[in-house]
């Protein structure tokens, strides 16, 4: 029975996109400022690389099933791993395009992105990607890029957690460089305001709807107290930061963060269904139980994002359609040159 269920999941993972509930024209030429005030980079969607659905069908037909089975095993052992693999793909794509630069270790002559503040002591899942890569290298050497592995692993993480499936476009190449600076300034901060979040996503060709849908990734995984200290301010100052603050929820967070070292204390981004990919995250936002300031802001700072949050909270299928659409768009962010297919995802060839 379990084998049958697994087979069903694997077939499901390979199903094509059915329909998209939104089509947003992307604006490649628009640049804007991120929260740090640094000028934005000019990466956009599909600049110099054409991604394709069936690239590995002939060159490495086992690719999808190898990735899926490693993800499934890893998530069975550690349910949080689904969240960590999904986030790795996001942190890869937002820094100079989806090029696996996030996976590079510091070596002589190369400073990786792992020690950039948004990633340090926070990104996880590198060993799972290593295992996938090592299996793929023995079956079809130098064929499947690390950046494509990240994209497939992100999709499979969503699927094994009960979320939707989509077909992953492949053909990404791996970078021969990394940018700690870009990882430091280019990723959105949990204290970002809604206009800043919209700008950061827009400069990569992602719409406001894409941003709210992708934030739904926070239906999985955990965050450290240091990521949401600003949520506790109303308790300390007595001044509500947001209309709709849920004081009971904030008190429980304060208790957690004051009893354990805040740099190691962690809690679920979605307290109700932490390991299930569903629309509960949006329901939580409406009751003031968003964990990160940037999450709660979506429901209270802007009527446009609030309306999208309400739609997703009321109808999970709309969220799933928009999430799939946005993941394909995010996975299509390319940039840079000098690319290769790494033999080891942690170092250039
Ligand atoms: C909208 C802007 C976003 C901000 C400001 C943001 C910020 C954060 C922060 C601060 C954490 C906790 C890190 C820690 O405390 O160690 C986190 C975790 C996470 N983020 Fe985001 N994020 C954003 C968008 C996204 C997107 C687009 C995705 C994927 C589609 C995503 C997926 C995740 C996941 C799954 C986790 C939990 C990871 C784990 O448990 O290992 N986030 N995010």
TrEMBL record:
Q: Which reaction does it catalyse?
A: 2 a phenolic donor + H2O2 = 2 a phenolic radical donor + 2 H2O
**Cofactor(s) annotated in UniProt:** heme b; Ca(2+)
State the UniProt keywords alphabetically.
Calcium, Disulfide bond, Heme, Hydrogen peroxide, Iron, Metal-binding, Oxidoreductase, Peroxidase, Secreted, Signal
- Look up the signal peptide feature and give its range: 1-21
This entry's comment on the bound cofactor is: Binds 1 heme b (iron(II)-protoporphyrin IX) group per subunit.
One GO MF annotation is: peroxidase activity
EC number per UniProt: 1.11.1.7
Q: Does the keyword Secreted apply?
A: yes
What residue spans carry the region label Disordered?
170-189
Task: Give the Polar residues compositional bias ranges.
Answer: 178-189
Q: Name one Pfam family in it.
A: peroxidase
Q: Where in the cell is it found?
A: Secreted; Vacuole
Q: Which residues form the Plant heme peroxidase family profile domain?
A: 50-349
Q: What does this protein do?
A: Removal of H(2)O(2), oxidation of toxic reductants, biosynthesis and degradation of lignin, suberization, auxin catabolism, response to environmental stresses such as wounding, pathogen attack and oxidative stress. These functions might be dependent on each isozyme/isoform in each plant tissue.
Give the similarity note.
Belongs to the peroxidase family. Ascorbate peroxidase subfamily. Belongs to the peroxidase family. Classical plant (class III) peroxidase subfamily.
> What is the name attached to this protein's record?
Peroxidase
Where does this protein come from, organism-wise?
Camelina sativa (False flax)
